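Researcher: Re-running this chain for the archive, since the previous output was lost when a drive failed. Same request as before.
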Amino acid sequence: MDIDIQFRPANSAAKVNLAAGETCTAEAGAMIAMSGDTDVTTTTHKKGSGGILRAAKRLFAGESFFLNHFTAGPAGGHLWLGPTLSGDLLSYELAGENLIVQAGSFLACETGVDMDVGWQGFKSLLSGENVFWLHLSGRGKVILSSYGAIYPIEVTDAHIVDTGHIVAFQESLDFTITKAGKSWVSSFLGGEGLVCKFHGKGTVWCQSHNATAFGRILGPNLRPRRR
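Model: Regenerated structure tokens:
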């Protein structure tokens, strides 16, 4: 599977080139366009298998219940994928390690990648973000999406990231929830509130915009639906 990310960072789309018979698994609704002889099947987990429990857990993590599997025809083909929010895409190749992904950031993967939903504990609940995050493991390429630009931060000891700006991080990192400022009052009055303090060595991928904060600003200005 060859991935070509275009139109970044504000309006990214991924052109996925597939060899003959190769399959790409994507979130429901992510497909923009595809080759005419591409076969599409829909399951709750991996192609050829179910998994109602895992699908239900993905719903709690902010992902879709169903997954679409796009398989190229005898001559190969291509597939265009796009995220729901305006932003960037990240292509990352797993080589046996685990990657923890924030709610709503998973877009697509190769068949060698497995996904499950992990409980991050009450420390995530305190942060105001989703307490269920995706755990991606196995071998193969994955595509993640962000709201705004996406960029890596290499953590060598400790690093603080706002909870709403986390896209994904390597499992070699641990984190604690703490206040942004020296006091609770200054943290909340300054608009930062709670943040994640990562420890260890590994990479955190961040997004430049915060979808939750944008929703809080936009929501009160939306007109109620007339019946």
